[in-house]
Design goal:
The protein is mainly α. Helix 2 packs across helix 3 and helix 3 runs antiparallel to helix 5. It is elongated, with a radius of gyration of 16 Å. The model has no long low-confidence stretch (mean pLDDT about 85).
Length: about 110
């Protein structure tokens, strides 16, 4: 996903926060990936549209709530509604695909 697509999703039309947005987006991708399977590369999930959606939702949440976490002296503890169900769906699809792939490889041998 490009920086412009992320900024469009966030409805941002300036460049002041480009580095922050990129950092938040990359962190969100890692967060979602680690919630599914910490042992794989983040690009493993590139084929899943829900992965990008979850990363965008989390990026938006972190971007919009960054001031609140600074004012309270800590990070926000809640994940925005929608991210957890997306992660659950992704986890199910990922392990289903992984199992099917393993089964297909056994059939070939």
């Amino acid at each position: 996903m490009t920086a412009e697509e992320i900024k469009n999703y966030l409805r941002i039309d300036h460049t002041l926060d480009d580095n922050l947005i990129d950092n938040l987006y990359q962190s969100a991708r890692e967060y979602v990936k680690n919630a599914i399977d910490v042992g794989v590369d983040v690009e493993t999930f590139a084929k899943y549209k829900l992965f990008e959606r979850a990363a965008l939702l989390l990026t938006a949440h972190w971007y919009e709530n960054r001031l609140a976490s600074v004012q309270t002296g800590g990070g926000t503890t809640s994940i925005p509604y929608g991210v957890t169900p997306l992660i659950q769906q992704l986890r199910g699809q990922y392990y289903y695909d992984k199992e099917r792939e393993a089964h297909d490889n056994q059939s070939v041998e």
